[in-house]
Structure formats: structure tokens, C-alpha cells
């Protein structure tokens, strides 16, 4: 996953929409964000930056600012939550029910397929087809 930051000469809403639709049509794009104040387009995903600029230069002037790996979000520390006794009982019941379903599935009988046999009354009769 790469993060590509591009500087675009986008002046109005129509050119912004053209740029966004051009980028979104490329394969491998995960997310797109456009900052109109700084006129910067940020694209994340498995995208070739040169091909991206080549497509965008057909609609507006484009310059590559930076190309690099996508920074992962910092992991949030989650505090262990205390479980209610009611929820613990519900989980136990669900586990018991799941075990029961597994046991019953093993006991289901598979019936053999039904075969039909066609018998003609007079096999020597003349039939015009």
C-alpha cells in the first residue's frame, strides 16, 4: 500500500469532480481525499504514481509532492471491560446450543437418491418419431 500526495491546479467544482472520477476509475485505489485549500490530492492503495499523474494531466496540471508507504493508524489501547453476569450466562447458553447443533448434524441420515425406471408396455411396437 502506497500513499501518493499530488498537487493539482483545480479551480472549480467541475474540475474537482473530473479529477476525482479519473482517480477513482483506476484499479487499486483504496481511498481518495482532496484538500481544496491546499489543492492537494491524497491517494492510498496499490497505484502507480506515474500512471496516476499521466491520467490526471489530461484534465489539469499535476505535480507529485510525495510517494511513500501508508502509515498505519496508531493502535488504540482498549481497557478490558467487565462482563455482566447476564451476558456471561447468555454466552454459555449460545455455546451449549452450538455444541448441540454440531452433535445433531452428525446424526442426520443421508438418503440414497431415488432412481426411476421407465418400462415400455410393448417394446416391439412401431413408433414413428
From TrEMBL:
Residues 70-94 have a biased composition (Basic and acidic residues). PROSITE patterns: HMA_2. The keyword Transferase does not apply. This is Heavy metal-associated isoprenylated plant protein 39-like. Belongs to the HIPP family. It comes from the Eukaryota. Residues 64-94 are annotated as: Disordered. It comes from Momordica charantia. InterPro entries: HIPP (IPR051863), HMA_dom (IPR006121), HMA_dom_sf (IPR036163). Residues 1-68 form the HMA domain. Keywords: Lipoprotein, Metal-binding, Methylation, Prenylation. The gene is LOC111023592. GO terms for molecular function: metal ion binding.
Amino acid at each position: 500500500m502506497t500513499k501518493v500526495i499530488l498537487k493539482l491546479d483545480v479551480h472549480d467544482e467541475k474540475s474537482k469532480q473530473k479529477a476525482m472520477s479519473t482517480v477513482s476509475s483506476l484499479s487499486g485505489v483504496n481511498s481518495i481525499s482532496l484538500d481544496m485549500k491546499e489543492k492537494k490530492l491524497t491517494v492510498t492503495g496499490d497505484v502507480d504514481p506515474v500512471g496516476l499523474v499521466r491520467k490526471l494531466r489530461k484534465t489539469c496540471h499535476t505535480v507529485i509532492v510525495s510517494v511513500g508507504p501508508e502509515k498505519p493508524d496508531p493502535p488504540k489501547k482498549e481497557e478490558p471491560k467487565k462482563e455482566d453476569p447476564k451476558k456471561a450466562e447468555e454466552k454459555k447458553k449460545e455455546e451449549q446450543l452450538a455444541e448441540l447443533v454440531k452433535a445433531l448434524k452428525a446424526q442426520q441420515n443421508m438418503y440414497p437418491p431415488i432412481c426411476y425406471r421407465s418400462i415400455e408396455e410393448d417394446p416391439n411396437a412401431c413408433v414413428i418419431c
